[in-house]
Structures are given as C-alpha cells and as structure tokens.
Amino acid sequence: MLFDDDLLFEDSNGVRPTTVINCWACELPANGCPSPNSWPYYVRTVREWLEFISGHGVALFDTRRRLKAALSAYSVYRAQGPIKHRFEASTWNQNVGILAGFYKWAKDEEYADSEPFTYRQAVWAFKGQVRRGRVNQSRRRQAKPHVTIKYLDDDFTDMFLKGLAGLSPDGERDLRYRGRELARNSAVGRMIVSSGLRSQEYTYLLVCEVPLLPSRRTAVPVSFPVPSGVTKGSKYRESWIDYDSLAELHSYIALDRAAATFGSTWRPPARWGGSRCS
Known about the structure:
single chain, 278 residues, alpha+beta, 6 strands, elongated
C-alpha cells in the first residue's frame, strides 16, 4: 500500500493518485495476479512511474499527449539513464505490461480518460488456429527464451555439489572446510539440480511428499509430483529426478530420522500403519 507524507487520502483536488493505486492493488488477486509475492512488485512498478512523471510535472491521469511524452522520457531513462536505474528488455516489457493493466483498470473504473500507450492490431497463427489481438508499441524486442537461458556447465555443477558435501574438486574430504549439515546440503543440492525445483518448492517440501525410491535402479528419471501448495501460482506440476539423486535423498532422510529418534522409547501406534510421515 502507498501513503503520502501527510497520510491523507484525498484533498481539495479529490481522491489522490496513491489512493487509486491502493484500490487497484486490492483488486489484483481478482484481476489475474493471484500470487502474493507479485503484489509488492506491481505496486512498486506503478509507484516508480508516478515518482518519475511527478518530477516532470505530469499527473498520473494527465492528458494523453503529456502522458505519451512522459512515457518516451521514461523509456530513455530506463534504457540509457543511470546504470542502477536501467532495465533489461525483459524487465522493461514486464513493467509496461503492469502499467498497461493499471491504466486499463483505471479507465474501466472511470479514474482515467486516457493512457500513454499506443497499440497495433496483430494476428497469430499456430497449428491452423488464428488469433487476433493488440500489441503494445512500447515493448522492446528481446531474445527468444532458448537464447537467454543460462545453464551450469557440468564441471562447475560437479564442483558445486562436491563443495556442498565438504569435498575438494578431486572428491577427497576437504580438511579446511568447516561447514555443517554436509549430508543434508549434498542430498538437497543434488535433488535441486536434478529435479529443477524452485526455491519455494524445495523449502516447504515435506518428507512424505518425496517420491518413493524404486525397488530397482533405473536409468529412466523418476516422476516427482510437486504439490500445488508450494508451487508458483499454486498450480500442481510434475517434475523428474534421477535415481541416484533420489537414493541419496532417501539415505539422508533415513539418517536424519535415526538421529532424531535415537534413544527414544516412543513408537507410533500400530493402528497408524507404516506411514513414512510417522
């Protein structure tokens, strides 16, 4: 939420821009932005735009001509301004999308009469199906996703995993290393590299959600279902993990369980069965 220095929501000119932005932010969950992690970024994007145009004497809901001029200046600022304020093409396009969505909402709610963006009609064809839509002319060209993806080299990945386990690059124990939880770090690190889980997904993953280890070693990756409660956007997805990484993870789980229950006389009631979560 945004607040002006005087903590007022309106003045003699009516409702303030920050109040309108707050109203828009409250409706984000119902307007195609369900992830709580995205809400602060959306609001911050509009706030930075407001701060920039205010410094140039342009209001948030000014005339179309003045808004377009401010957008041109903002584009130059984000492309060639101070280095710490520059945007990559992908970041700029994301910000343009957020601002376009905000102004569309503002026009629908009758807060704004115009917006700074210009659109052109476009046609997409895929597998015999034709779609028509609008393309924002303020977007920048950017490389295709397969060009921008950065992969870890195999030798670096191997050295990284050995480092997590407290080993030197040649695989021997590094006597100078003083890390903790080496078995956990190694098992979880190999799981992440193999399965491609996001940080949110592996951080909140439960032991009972780890796939069962096949009875026989297999060269085919093992299915790794990721529950919707921990995924981005709360959408269930399925990943894969190689057998050796899954075996190391189960080995650590057994070690951790044994260490946690050592010396304890309590045992789960028989009626609970043989659940792995017990």
